[in-house]
């Protein structure tokens, strides 16, 4: 029993030792605390970094991502925020540079209409398929349809021949 406890504590200490550098790397990736002229700039920066998508990392914001491109995008958002640019101007700059994909909520345009309509189209298609299945089920009679040969065989079984 003592040997098992020593083994478990050894594995636990090895796991913590292995995870410690990962935690330090994440802390270093976040970087130095950023300085802003006011709370409005800080809120704008935080909002934008959580609304802009990292174009390298499929489903992460630039706030969450540790990719080099996300760090560059964060620096650029920080610089433009410090220069006093509006949130709309910063988003327009990022869209001009990276395309509408950089937005988590792309606007409704001709090129994004299918993206916005796809949930409704999928729901409508599922509803149509369900309706077709239910309609076919209601068409079938409760009694099975037999051929003449099957009816004769059933009649012979019923009579005991």
From TrEMBL:
- Transmembrane segments annotated in the record for this chain: 113-131
Write the record's keywords in alphabetical order, separated by commas: Cytochrome c-type biogenesis, Heme, Iron, Membrane, Metal-binding, Signal, Transmembrane, Transmembrane helix
Organism superkingdom: Bacteria
Where's the CcmH/CycL/Ccl2/NrfF N-terminal domain?
Answer: 25-157
Q: Which CDD domains match?
A: CcmH_N
Role noted for this protein: Possible subunit of a heme lyase.
Q: Which family does it belong to?
A: Belongs to the CcmH/CycL/Ccl2/NrfF family.
What this protein is called in its record is Cytochrome c-type biogenesis protein
Query: Can you name the source organism?
Result: Halomonas tibetensis
Q: What is the lineage of its organism?
A: Bacteria, Pseudomonadati, Pseudomonadota, Gammaproteobacteria, Oceanospirillales
């Amino acid at each position: 029993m003592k040997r098992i406890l020593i083994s478990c504590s050894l594995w636990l200490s090895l796991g913590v030792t292995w995870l410690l550098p990962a935690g330090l790397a994440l802390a270093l990736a976040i970087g130095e605390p950023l300085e802003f002229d006011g709370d409005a700039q800080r809120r704008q920066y935080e909002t934008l970094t959580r609304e802009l998508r990292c174009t390298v990392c499929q489903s992460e914001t630039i706030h969450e991502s540790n990719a080099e491109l996300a760090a560059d995008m964060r620096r650029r958002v920080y610089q433009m925020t410090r220069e006093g640019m509006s949130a709309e101007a910063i988003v327009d700059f990022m869209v001009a540079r990276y395309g509408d994909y950089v937005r988590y909520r792309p606007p409704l345009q001709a090129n994004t209409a299918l993206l916005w309509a796809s949930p409704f189209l999928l729901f409508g298609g599922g509803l149509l398929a369900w309706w077709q299945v239910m309609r076919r089920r209601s068409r079938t009679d409760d009694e099975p349809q037999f051929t003449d040969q099957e009816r004769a065989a059933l009649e012979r079984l019923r009579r005991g021949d």
